[in-house]
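Researcher: Batch entry, complex prediction.
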Amino acid sequence: MREHRRTVEVFGGRVALRAAGRQAPLALAVAEALLRRMHAALTRFDPESELCRLNADPRPTVPASVLVRKLAAAVPYAGELSGGLVDATVDPFLEPAHDLPEDDPHPASPDPRRRWASVFSDTATVTRPPGVALDSGGLAKGLAADLIADHLREVPSFAIECLGDVRAGGAHRTLRVASPWDDGALAELALDDGAAATSGVTRRGRHIVDPGTGLPAHTGVVQATALAPTALEAEVRAKAALLAGPGDAPGHLPHGGVLVLASGEIICL
Amino acid sequence: MQDPKPPISSRLRTVRRRVAAGAVATFAAAWLAVAALGKGGSSTAATTSTTSSGSGATQSQSDDYGTSSGSTSESDSGSSSSSGSDSSGASSGSQGSQSQSDHVTTAQS
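Model: Structure tokens for the complex:
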């Protein structure tokens, strides 16, 4: 069945949407509007965004829209799922760290303060200790892909490619895992109904923070791809695998995935 | 005896009214679905089961670059799109088309 396609530029990148069926054109138009609303609410780069206003709010409990509440709910979910390695309360390292000294690779460690566990959301508000900021980077991509997938569940088939995260359903597809070094494909996997995400440090430098040190992580894994039922879970698992290092990374990929080590070794799970 | 069938002009008028009402209802449903997400609604967007035509329209709001853009979707027989541009020169907006590719790609962002 032919699929309609729509491309939207949000979150600093490109989101490609595909859907089949008679309802696809309207469903994709609504999906685009949803993406733009998510972008406006969750961007870290606009001080007027709802997320930035929440982060600057001195109150411990703040009324929030459903989008920000979903992000807030994703923070403890990610922390729990990753054993604290994916900590969305850690200040992101925004500038690529190309000139850091090459220390020996070592697994990242969780922040013992477990600030991610102090974030809650209910049907109308977000609660967190004042000063604990939420970082939408990474989690927002997976969240967006899952929300759009939920919206497209009525069409016969759909696919969402959201800045490297993928969520698809209703059709047999081939998932290409991009190479960390060039534009080629590293591997091809089957993807029917599910999601995939890739985290890595070869494209943007060492921009992923070790929560235990607050410094860019250097674990010996340069790219991790995770398969999972949802894009949010895939996003968390991919980042956790990268942070865990070669020894523990496979344990973070229970649904399968691909690891690329600094030595060049490729491990398909 | 009066003809039970209304004249053709009357029937055409009825059809036009129904088409217009359907278009308005579809747009309203889509707009409400999107608006609910940003207004503290307790559920995600509704699906588009009310649609009866191959076209739609959306409202969108400014993005990081101060862009405000709207778009129209493609029809089954072709595609059309409109997009806005921002002051930084980066493109923004959307493209509509049809495809048959069964490949998807995951990559570092």
